[in-house]
Amino acid sequence: MVKMGRSKFKNNLFVFYTVLFLILSFPAFYYLYKQDKNRRTKLLNENLGEIARLVENYLAATDTGYEDFEALDFLKGILPREDLLLSVIDTSGDVLYGYSEEETISADNRDRPAEIGESLLNGTATSIRTPNGMDGLYYFFAENFGDHIVRVAVPYSSDIVEFLKSRHTMFLTIIIIFMVVWYIMSMLTKNFTNSITRLKELTNSIRKNPSALVRSSFPEDEIGEIGREIIDIYNDLMLTKEALAMERKKLLDHISALNEGVMFFSSDKKMLFGNDRFTTLMSIMTDDKESFSSNILARPEFADVVEFIDNNRIEAGSKPSELPRMEYQLKNKGRFFEVQCVIFPDNSFEIILSDITKIGKNKLIKQQMTSNISHELNTPVASIKGYLETILHTPNIPVEKREYFVMKAIAQTDKLKDLIADISALNKIEEKESIVKEKVVINDIIREVRENFEASFKQKNIGLHVDIKNDVVVFGNRGMIISIFQNLTENAIKYAGDGTTIAISVTHDDKKFYHFSFSDNGVGIPDEHLGRIFERFYRIDAGRSRKTGGTGLGLAIVKNTVQAHGGKIVVRDRIGGGAEFLFSLPK
Ligand code: ADP
User: Fold this and answer.
1) Ligand 1 pocket mutation pick from 555, 557, 571, 583 by most atoms within 8 angstroms of CB
2) How far apart are CA 157 and CA 162, in angstroms?
3) Hey, which of 494, 500, 519 would you mutate to test ligand 1's pocket, going by the most ligand atoms within 8 Å of its Cβ?
4) Residue 519 near ligand 1, beta carbon < 6 Å
5) Which pLDDT belongs to residue 333?
6) Domains of the chain listed by start with CATH number
7) Residue 574 CB less than 6 A away from ligand 1
8) What does DSSP assign to residue 107?
9) Per-residue model confidence as pLDDT tens digits over 24-74
């Protein structure tokens, strides 16, 4: 239920009706007052006229007639009103009897009471005034009887207060009418004010809790309809706002999770918001931990951005089909960064920073790979071409010589085959083609490798010492694990030197890995090469490596294979000489 007192609208309506009521009732009231006054005056005139005529008749009836006015005292004594002023005045103005105001009526009618002068002219006259030497108003009535005037006066109190006092019922009636009218009005406007009050309550509740959906019932009238419309529009707005806030949150979450650093700027180049990654990349890129506390656009790294923004301001109202965008790269301490800038239609803009070191490095490595591969392929192809041309252009070449060249050419094709096999092996590992894994007993692998190199071991007098228990079982791709031991063994045979010993052992194991040592006691690897030995096509002595049939990819294949299994590999100088490879393979 709506509380009436709280409705300002209702109060206003009440004031409006009250004022209207007063405006309308005042003239009516005034008219009644005038009417009443006239009626009372008429009545008074009649009464006083009768008294005047009574006095006149009395004077005429007494023996003494107009000589002795003392008789009038008697008459006055029996008249009902005590406050009556009675006087008889002759036409020259002398007071013959009664109340004297010491008035004299001068010949030119000046200085005499109005009623006297008028009665001389009109026969009767009245006036309302305060008699000389007395208080209060009196109503004077004078009648001219030829040679004298009889004047009667009574206190006059026909003021408004008296009138109001004497009109209790009338006012009560008016007030009751007013109340009834007010009640009817209030009933008629009840629904109307109800709707207005609800509207007011609605706006109050919206103000108190601006983001909540609102519910309110309105009466079935026009205002109620407006109220319902407002609620619908407001709720739609709130839902849209909520959806927008969700989208904004998603966008902000997305921005903060980005691998790129993003910072938004206002059109007057003030920082608005950005992600943490931007701060991180800024400090790496500028080498300045405090870079963020200063105006970052003033930094030399962003000079191009500022110039771009100044030269590409979008005119208000124009909708460019494509947003102005620029990008450039920066390098700091071996790291590569990309700076991008996009200007939005309102001339606000964003700067995106990305660390492209990996991409940059990969690109570099790919370039080196391609040139290395073509170089490596070129060498055997050139040799084969040379042998074949020699055979072709040398007529009458001895059979043995020709056979020798052909054998050489075949050896080079084998080398080519090896090279291609190694490159494709590396590619396979790098592309992480699904590796089929199984339990692999390491001693079985080593046995197989020993059998493969039996002849070489004998030929070069190389010993193989294995200290691995039979229960050492790794989980991996059998072919790939063989390639690890095969490559390392082949290298030891090729580079360690005759009469050396290869030692393979498990140094320790943990929950996930077995840690292996593969060493020889040969020439070893000079320290300056240790760091690069796993690079593709890296050789210590290119001539010797080629001669021994090395492709320069053996150790790269070993390293990638170990890594593809989740393990690690390092190389070091073996104590007592030779090279030692330490690597881990999963259980
Ligand atoms: P390659 O096909 O030339 O053998 P690798 O990648 O297998 O290529 O080896 C790279 C280089 O490392 C070799 O050229 C060789 O000089 C050196 N190297 C590898 N293993 C040994 C070792 N056990 N002792 C000495 N040097 C080695």
Assistant:
1) 555
2) 7
3) 494
4) no
5) 81
6) 2-164 (3.30.450.20), 168-245 (no CATH), 258-355 (3.30.450.20), 360-430 (1.10.287.130), 438-586 (3.30.565.10)
7) no
8) T
9) 878 887 888 788 778 878 888 898 899 999 888 888 887 666 667 777 888
Residue 296 per-residue DSSP state: G
Number of alpha carbons in the 13 Å side-chain half-sphere of residue 545: 15
Beta strand 473-476 with 438-441 is: antiparallel
- Whether the Cβ atoms of residue 519 and residue 503 lie closer than 8 Å to each other: yes
Q: How confident is the model at residue 293 (pLDDT cuts 50, 70, 90)?
A: low
> What is the β-pairing status of strands 473-476 and 335-343?
unpaired
Assign 157 to helix, strand or coil: coil
- Tally of CB atoms within 10 A around 119: 26
Any bridge partners for residue 506, and if so which?
Answer: 516
Packing angle of the helix pair 8-61, 190-208 (nearest 10 deg): 140
Q: What is the pLDDT of residues 386-411, one digit of tens each?
A: 899 989 898 888 989 889 989 989 98
492 close to ligand 1 (CB < 6 Angstrom): yes
Report the predicted TM-score, pTM, of the whole model to 2 decimal places. Answer: 0.45
Q: Two tokens at 331?
A: 């390098």
